[in-house]
Design goal:
3 strands, 35% helix, 191 residues
Amino acid sequence: TFAVYESDSPQTEEPDPDDEVGRSLPNTVVKQLASSNALSLLAELANQGVADAVELLIRTGRRPSEICHLTETCLQWDERVREDGSLDRQPVLVYRPEKTPKRSKRLPVHAREALVVKRACERARARFPDVSPGKLPLFPRQTRNRSGTVPTGAQRISKAVREWARGLPELLDSDGTPYDRDRVYAYAFRH
């Protein structure tokens, strides 16, 4: 006969979902990366479009490819009537999830994200004034894009984030110890 007892298998602890250990970036590091000084450095190293895309990655937690494929029409407004009868308008980011691209999703965002999207729209529209609104990417590719309909690739954003992380002054963890910059990559904002 053969029997396996519970004590025969190794005990594993269930991961704590609130634990910052793993691939996620600690909040203290995210705050340093989202600072205006850090984002200005990224704009200098790459360009303002890449800096805006990374800021949206940081603030929304979306996948790099989802941010890269946003179009000029991605910012919409949800309206509701308050109890006092006044109209309340809240910005919403409309995107296509990578895993289910046939259905758009609506992500409520803050005024700062709406401002970043508006700024990117103005830049894209100034560069490609003749592209129809549904076809104009929020972050158009810089080269080999005569039509203006090709978005910046996620790999371009990923490369810029790695170079940016290496060029930043020392990042500090919550306990004041240096944080390993190799752990800063575009997809890490997702976790």
